[in-house]
Amino acid sequence: MKTIGLIGGMSWESSIEYYRIINEVAKDRLGGLHSAKCVMYSVDFGEIEPLMKDNRWDVVADALILAARSVEQAGADFLVICTNTMHKLAGDIQAAIHIPLLHIANATGERIRTRGCSTVALLGTRFTMEEIFYRERLSDQYGVRVIIPDSPERNMVDRVIFDELCRGKIVPSSKTAYLGIMETLVKAGAEGIILGCTEIGLLVHQEDSRVPLFDTARIHAEAAVDFALKGP
Q1: Catalytic hit among 82, 83, 125, 216
Q2: What pTM was estimated for this model as a whole?
Q3: Is 117 a catalytic residue?
Q4: Which of 38, 117, 166, 197 does the annotation list as catalytic?
Q5: pLDDT at 231 exceeding the cut of 80
Q6: What architecture is the 105-215 domain classified under in CATH?
């Protein structure tokens, strides 16, 4: 079994889910008392989030490169960044380390391909929804058309992530609003919906939707176990 390197803390609410899912899947695959070999570097999101809002991505990159190198030096065989938005910096981080980075959009794209969806909606932080780093990878590498909510809805989705979900708050009215946005996207042609922030799966679940939901935290965590259990 390879050792999984994790960069967490963005937020720790979803990092808990990664750790839980990774070990549950490892136990299911291997049986007995088996669990996953993991090394985690958890950042202080209170330091990172203001830098994101101020567009100081160079400073964020430096912090995550430090985390990635620390995980590598601790013995990790590959790297998992436990957040969608920070994959904006995936190229910079990969270039700074010698172990492979398991990209969350690749894991998600493979799952979308398996389900046969050609058009999907993307919910996430405004960075993930509005910038091209995520949508372009899905389009170019997996042939998936990605649609996003209108601007007011994007602002609402982003606000709930940072003001509620990252703080451990589950607000029923926010769930109702999310479900309304999701239904609008389905009517606009979405055959599935990417929960493109690792906290969104804490708020909405498959039973809430009439189309497939692609919970990126779960998909990424499962892909990490797959990679850890593969041969050399």
Answers
A1: 83
A2: 0.93
A3: no
A4: 197
A5: no
A6: 3-Layer(aba) Sandwich (3.40)
